Known about the structure:
Elements (H helix, E strand, L loop, with lengths): L2 E9 L5 E3 L3 E3 L4 E5 L6 H9 L6 E6 L2 E2 L5 H11 E4 L11 H6 L6 H5 L4 H11 L4 H4 L8 H13 L5 E5 L7 H14 L6 E6 L10 E4 L5
Parallel strand pairs: 4-9, 4-10, 7-8, 8-9
Antiparallel strand pairs: 1-2, 1-3, 1-5, 5-6
Amino acid sequence: MILETQQLTYQYASGKTLCFPDIQLHAGEKILIVGPSGSGKSTCLNLLSGVLPSQTGTITLNGQNYTTQTRHQLDQLRADHIGIIFQSLNLIPYLSGFENVALSLQFSQQRRANVSNINISINQLAEGLGLTSDILIKQPKAMSIGQQQRIAVIRAMLGKPALILADEPTSALDPMATEQFMTELTRSIDPAEQAVIVVSHNPALVPLFDRVVQIGAKV
Length: 219
């Protein structure tokens, strides 16, 4: 078991309360969390990543319960065990693709220890996602959106974190590019040690996943 949640809820300052379905995620699994805009998908992702503190219920990642962790311990847990693909990508504009990816290892000794040769590891991940070495030396502004997204995936994958979380990773892609991207993403994980949760409002992604978790109204 990589991730388990039980009776997870979150109440906003406005008083609105969201109740999330329980999740059990095993190594090699791919879960899609779907729901309309405003249904709480991003809140759920922020809870699972430990960015938002859980108010009620429990979240357990690799046997570690979030509620027993200090803020510093949660930050380190996230750095060691979670790779995040942000909707906005969050690439640093003045760094090359390679440098953006390598930066992820600066915050986790554990992930760094999983990489015996950073050059080989980054280039292998890039090759698997269809990126050539000449793309890695470019800054984000010189890349297409699809290339930037693949850089964000490599950054999340480097060092083999147990859980990959992706927030609307295909929002800027057409249907054909979306299917290719998701195929590449899921093919990149180690089925013995990693799992993926993707948050999206796009029901066309459903056939690409093992299971679907519905939040809010049906799509």
